[in-house]
Amino acid sequence: MVLTSLALLLAAPKVTPFTGPTITVMMASKKSFVIQTETANSPKTVAQIVGLCNKKFYDGQLVHRVEDWVVQWGDPTSRKGVDAPGVGEGGSGKDLPFEESPVEFKRGIVGIASTGMKVGGDSQIFILTKDAERLTKNYAVLGKVIKGMDVVDGIKRGDKIVSMRAAEIKITRRKKN
Description:
Strand order of the largest sheet: 3-4-6-5-7-2-1-8
Shape: globular
Number of helices: 3
Oligomer: single chain
Number of strands: 8
Number of domains: 1
CATH topology: Cyclophilin
Helix content: 10-25%
């Protein structure tokens, strides 16, 4: 029995996380950071956020939440100021399904904020500045910061996002001989 289970585990295809398009976030400070997206377990989440980036949805938004363990943005109402009524409650208006991921919620992981555990989100994004393993398998993973975590560590509530752009994915096809 144990050997059969081990054989099934070894035969299962390995899923490599963090192979999706990158997203570059430029702050008003002229500093930036880069997120590598996680399409293996969160394809719908990544597709929606990349689409919002391409529509310039995040441009001009303010970071509305900064705590000792997390930085969060993605509510368009924040353009009116971080203390404007309803900030932290808004989004793009297009709900996402919950996509469970085995990725551990450690420092640098980028997740999708929602109204609670195992609930899909919309457009609000958070980055962990400290490990928060209680979130593992309870929130969708967008990706992880692969460059500029020092920039994320320096973000303050009210800091402005100048732009958030996804890199284009280039598909190359092999020529038939």
